């Protein structure tokens, strides 16, 4: 099931997406897609209402509003190498605040303190329930599904400041969407194609199978230290090919079996 969060007539709700997102409209198109509005929230038992609305008549929102986004750095060897970094011996976690999260179609606002902002296409894991110290064999039980993410990074700031809070946590630096795909199991998520394009030009092309630390590794490692809440998000790292974004660019992250997340870059003003 694909679960979207949306706004219509001033009301916010979740809905199950029906239709083929790879249809005649092409990647990122919502042509022909319909939302069946969910009674309740997807983090508990819910029912479909049977009330349906065309997806192109609503505003898609970030599929969740996470309490926290836990992101993993240097989890693809080729990406670490392209920036001249060593692969860490253990998962390298950092946070992106909830205020960094935006949805599909929202604008990435170029931060005033940076002159070099990069895209980073990533698979995002959405947590389904409160969990702590999750054993490897139970990891599948705490995952609601997966979505596309863009870990937008002020690269020059990242290189000059020891902490990554500003470089990776500025407002609009965490696009998520377009929806949560719940029909992918751990084995499937372990080998998905992931790409990023800028103005239609292919920039990144990799597979989640290239991750150094698996999804199981990451959730076990993170929950050793902290409690994850329903709707929290884990960003699993980016493949090689990261590169610059400029005001006026359109960046699209596509993940096999999930969909396409598209955002434009604008100047602050």
The average pLDDT value, as a whole number, equals 95
Outline type: globular
List the domain count as a whole number. 2
Helix content: 10-25%
- Multimeric state: single chain
What is the tally of helical segments?
5
Terminus-to-terminus distance: 39 Å
Order of helices and strands, N to C?
EEEEEEHEEEEEEEHHEHEEHEEEE
Strand content: 35-45%
Q: Please give the radius of gyration in angstroms.
A: 17 Å
CATH topology of the largest domain: Fumarylacetoacetate hydrolase, domain 2
GO molecular function: acetylpyruvate hydrolase activity; isomerase activity; metal ion binding
GO biological process, one term: carboxylic acid metabolic process
Organism: Actinacidiphila paucisporea
Domain Fumarylacetoacetase-like C-terminal: 68-265
What would you note in describing this structure?
It is a single chain. With 269 residues, the protein is mainly beta. The chain has five helices and 20 strands. It has helices at residues 77-82, 155-160, 165-169, 186-189, 215-225, and strands at 2-8, 11-18, 34-39, 47-54, 59-60, 69-73, 92-96, 101-102, 107-110, 117-119, 121-127, 143-150, 153-154, 174-181, 193-198, 201-207, 233-235, 243-245, 250-255, 259-267. The protein is globular and about 50 Å long. The mean pLDDT is 95.
